[in-house]
Hints:
Two copies of one chain form a homodimer. In chain A, 29% of the residues lie in helices and 17% in strands. Chain A contains 16 helices and 16 strands. Chain A has helices at residues 3-6, 38-41, 48-63, 100-103, 118-136, 157-160, 210-216, 232-238, 254-261, 274-291, 305-320, 339-347, 384-387, 411-415, 417-426, 491-506, and strands at residues 19-25, 28-34, 168-176, 200-208, 219-225, 242-244, 251-253, 296-303, 325-331, 351-357, 368-371, 376-379, 393-397, 409-410, 471-472, 478-479. In chain A, the strands form five sheets. Chain A has a seven-stranded mixed sheet. In chain A, strands 1-2-14 form a three-stranded mixed sheet. The termini of chain A are far apart. Chains A, B: Pfam families: Lipase_3. Chains A, B: Residues 222-369 form the Fungal lipase-type domain.
Amino acid sequence: xxxxxxxxxxxxxxxxxxxxxxxxxxxxxxxxxxxxxxxxxxxxxxxxxxxxxxxxxxxxxxxxxxxxxxxxxxxxxxxxxxxxxxxxxxxxxxxxxxxxxxxxxxxxxxxxxxxxxxxxxxxxxxxxxxxxxxxxxxxxxxxxxxxxxxxxxxxxxxxxxxxxxxxxxxxxxxxxxxxxxxxxxxxxxxxxxxxxxxxxxxxxxxxxxxxxxxxxxxxxxxxxxxxxxxxxxxxxxxxxxxxxxxxxxxxxxxxxxxxxxxxxxxxxxxxxxxxxxxxxxxxxxxxxxxxxxxxxxxxxxxxxxxxxxxxxxxxxxxxxxxxxxxxxxxxxxxxxxxxxxxxxxxxxxxxxxxxxxxxxxxxxxxxxxxxxxxxxxxxxxxxxxxxxxxxxxxxxxxxxxxxxxxxxxxxxxxxxxxxxxxxxxxxxxxxxxxxxxxxxxxxxxxxxxxxxxxxxxxxxxxxxxxxxxxxxxxxxxxxxxxxxxxxxxxxxxxxxxxxxxxxxxxxxxxxxxx
Amino acid sequence: xxxxxxxxxxxxxxxxxxxxxxxxxxxxxxxxxxxxxxxxxxxxxxxxxxxxxxxxxxxxxxxxxxxxxxxxxxxxxxxxxxxxxxxxxxxxxxxxxxxxxxxxxxxxxxxxxxxxxxxxxxxxxxxxxxxxxxxxxxxxxxxxxxxxxxxxxxxxxxxxxxxxxxxxxxxxxxxxxxxxxxxxxxxxxxxxxxxxxxxxxxxxxxxxxxxxxxxxxxxxxxxxxxxxxxxxxxxxxxxxxxxxxxxxxxxxxxxxxxxxxxxxxxxxxxxxxxxxxxxxxxxxxxxxxxxxxxxxxxxxxxxxxxxxxxxxxxxxxxxxxxxxxxxxxxxxxxxxxxxxxxxxxxxxxxxxxxxxxxxxxxxxxxxxxxxxxxxxxxxxxxxxxxxxxxxxxxxxxxxxxxxxxxxxxxxxxxxxxxxxxxxxxxxxxxxxxxxxxxxxxxxxxxxxxxxxxxxxxxxxxxxxxxxxxxxxxxxxxxxxxxxxxxxxxxxxxxxxxxxxxxxxxxxxxxxxxx
Lengths: 514, 514
């Protein structure tokens, strides 16, 4: 048996899937993909796989309730993915200008969610793809001096990710740091020389162009927040660390708040905090477009940790811009603050659509916590659930609705934003399965996980750079090419370029109003 | 703790290193990389990581003898790899025409190995790179309909792999099957439609061009055999399955022989066996060049399983071509046959240079076997060691000699051919460490493993396709592009093209002699 492991020795496969640790309980298999970032890998003392097995066992009790074995038969008539190759990935864009307030929650999404209104569905996917962009463009390579930054400058971001048709333009990149020690939060380069030792690229501000503005009925400013780490482990250690926000009783988890508000003069990218960067940019844009007499909205989006930051951002924006229509569309977000925090958000008119997947653990944090001694997850009602409170209206998805998805419990895959976007795209109502005329590319689901059923023959974790970015030079040596100068982060460029740009695109007369 | 696994959920890293399972024993850390091919991954019931841990523990006893802890300090003064970026990867080629017989073992490599003669060093690396090419170009993607084939046609192979300067030209691809069930031998497509259900691309025949022929003093025919699976696991189950070869007492391991000789009329690529394909091609080339009055040599190379096949191939070739100078340069090859087999090889004048790494387990197979009950490897002297016998002269390398290599026991990494080639390139003699003027690109070592010290900042397992071969089509959908027609394997083309080619390149008058 043991030799079977050795036996792969001389296989140099192109595809190295991450380890899948599997435990079977009650006849249903549960799979947890043990992700190893390079930091873990460089410390041979750690044994993440063991942890994965433990976790799988622990979760099986709780989660088998939500996945029934007999659903597997559905995968037998999965449509051939090749039949869709020559079909468009989206429907023609509707003009939603008459209905946009409702789509953004003015009526708390009454009668829009079940069944899901097709215009709303498209808008959710649109914002979700802005959040996905923060993952797709992020430099995770710890051997890169730009680890933790965006791989492209903001002018090129949407073009590189195939989002040019979104009708938005990125005006600002946002960087964040944290002054408290949060487990596995920061992606850090191993090199001595790095663009930043303290900060990570944390998202962007974008604004709708004239054509999109016309279609959606107002000038829309978007803030898209990147997630980094599932907030679950923070709750393990920091369940009680709520911190005050604002002047009243509102309190929020101190880890989220730290990322949102930390700054330090000694850093290159966080002399101002993420909060300050975003608020300054939003203020600039709001003033500019309101100054032109336009109706303006602010839509804040994010996945997981990014969804938590979106709420903090919405809270602060509402405090600063009275009368501005602010909505949050979050994916897989955990609870962030207490009841007073929620109530203040409601009072200020912030509308939050919270997209969740029934089988995803993270949106249930910190309502459930890991019980080390019992080796299982428990619902702790009456305690934390009453401290941390969810905000807004929930759109609840179910992985069982899609015939394209594996039904085994892949905790990582179920939490992935692409899985969310796939399920939104196929969602009709709470009782129906995946709609047959969904157009979004199913293949995207497997970008960074192994969620698609085998019949589709899509490799897992396929989203990867050729040779991890190494290229052969003139001498035949494999080298890491230097980044295009325009894609190298620079605090100076970050501070000034969008002003110069507005000068160019919108007329110099506005420059001095900013 | 458990949440730490979940925590990587929202990280969509580009780089997914394979799992590293680690056990610590006697203060020295042993790391076994658990490779998961896609077959394993699709069967969530398997738990390869567990196996990895077991194996690590089992091996620690045996192998700590060969790695001393205090060698780690050497990594502190590793030269900066960037300093070599603008230097050539090889020395100018020497004319070895006067010494080629000696380099190929006419004097059993006496006085050439310790210290290693620089001309011999270069020739070893040259043949090793032919063996490496069979890995680099192999399609391991089980979701590809061409899984198990070569990704390029033979005219393009060397160009694609940067081997155009080798001075050789591929004349024939070799395919193999096996009629007995060998564990994890065949790489097979999961698709219903596949280029071949039974056969794998197993290597190639090449011949030196006129310029190289002049430099090396004779026309050299090369057969390069791909390895697939470490033969270790075969010995677990098949230790006693020796099969006769030839007319005398010679016997060889029946799994190797099966791959070498199996054929079936019902297959597309193995209507003739690998043996027959190679022998026919070699015969054609020998006749052709001898017919032109040239001196001809046959050099057979291969790594691991490929090294075993090389010996079988040499045996058969010697039987068929008396007077032809035949040599074998093998890397990490296990024992193949009994004493009678070895003696016959010697009698027929076959010269074998067997390159091994002291810490590699495979060349010690089947002299050591895994003892399931004791959970450790044992040297079984007096039994199998006397049945299976090594052939030829050994060039023994040591991973401790290179400051570039990690000293922890990575069984997979130590067995990799690129690790071998790196150590050959740096080898001076049995007492000296890595030569400082070695030119070969150190980065290559990490293609498919994690052997380079962290100071070098080379990502592990970097040899990978962009997005695993998926590309965006006109509609924005991610699709697996169809192969270039010229790179699609075809039994017809395989049978005839090299004849047509010789007609073209060498003159039509020879066509009818073949």
